[in-house]
Amino acid sequence: MIEALIAAVVIIVCLGAVYAMAGARVVKQYERGLVFRLGRLRPGIRGPGFSMIVPFVDRMRKVNMQIVTLPIPAQEGITRDNVTVRVDAVVYFKVVAPADAVVQVEDYRFAVSQMAQTSLRSIIGKSELDDLLSNREKLNQGLELMIDSPAVEWGVTIDRVEIKDVSLPETMKRSMARQAEAARDRRARVINADAELQASRKLAQAAEQMSDQPAALQLRLLQTVVSVAAEKNSTLVLPFPVELLRFLERQPGVAGPPQAAAGGTGAGGGVAAGGAAGGGGGTGPGAASGSGAGAVTDGGAGDDVPAPVDPIDPLGGVEPLEPGDTLEPGDAVDPVERLEEVDPADAGPADELEPPRRRADPEG
């Protein structure tokens, strides 16, 4: 009898232990527990720690209260300025009402994900490309409001939304690269022009200062020579001072710049070429001065050189005009006088032929 009683007590204790183990629940610090008794939500939310439920009658649903990081798959859309882009983002949200998150929506994670994708496509269509690239803070706020509005009924609040990346077509990337390069080039040219303007002002001030002290220009020239000679070059280029040319122009004995005269000097002979007006020539021992048509001398032996032949009047039949004479309209002069034609029937011996006569003047 006593053995049967002891066995019954042991069985009851074992059943109690099994019952306790079956109804014991542990809720973590970042979780909240919802108890459903025969499918009906029990009032109250089980907090973190040890909790008991009725085994085989109650069922506990634990809800995570941590902030959830949900990536949004890349969405392809067309912006307001007709540019095709692919944008992906990330949503940070958390559950604030565990009962609504479990009862009001089947799967709040999937619901938030789908709502985020739809809102992202809507934001892409309402925005321009420049806003997606540079004004993301405003777009993030608008996207957060669009997702948070329906999520409030699900017991979920959106902490923040961030646009991660904006993928552009290769053609658009090249266009933007060219635009950025052109902008950089424009800035470089503006900076270069500003530098030239400042340098010109400084050079003008330096020129004004040097004009008061002519010796400063000579010192500057010497400094330039020293700087060029320091590089050990085989060729040294020296600038010709303009002041020297001006000084030579002011001298009474100088006819003009070196380019105005043409001629040469020599010890035994020389060549002198006259200008268009018969001016200019070379000087020196044995050299001859130039004339209007030019002459070639050979150190004093020019007496035997024949006079040049005039290509206009080789026979010398046209008399030159005097300075005071003028030509009348009827006094047309043929530079090359034509000889009278000889009749072939009048041909005779060479010694009997008369020399050709000139054509009579129409007015004579």
Q: Rough shape? A: rod-shaped
Strand order of the largest sheet: 3-2-5
The count of DSSP E runs of length 2 or more, i.e. the number of strands, is: 10
Terminal CA distance: 188 Å
Helical content, roughly?
25-40%
- Sheet/helix structural class: alpha+beta
Assembly form of the protein: single chain
| Rounded radius of gyration (Å) | 57 Å
Sheet-strand content, in percent, reads 15-25%
Average pLDDT score: 74
Largest sheet: 3 strands, antiparallel
What pattern of helices and strands is seen along the backbone? HEEEEEEEHHHHEHHHEE
The tally of helices reads 8
The stretches of 5 or more residues where confidence is low (pLDDT under 50) are 256-303, 332-342
How would you sum up this structure, described in words?
With 364 residues, the protein is α+β, with helices and mostly antiparallel strands. The protein contains eight helices and ten strands. The strands form four sheets. It has a three-stranded antiparallel beta sheet with strand order 3-2-5. Strands 6-7-8 form a three-stranded antiparallel beta sheet. It has a two-stranded antiparallel sheet with strand order 1-4. Helix 3 (108-126) crosses helix 5. The longest helix is centred in the middle third of the chain and has 43 residues, at 170-212. The termini are far apart.
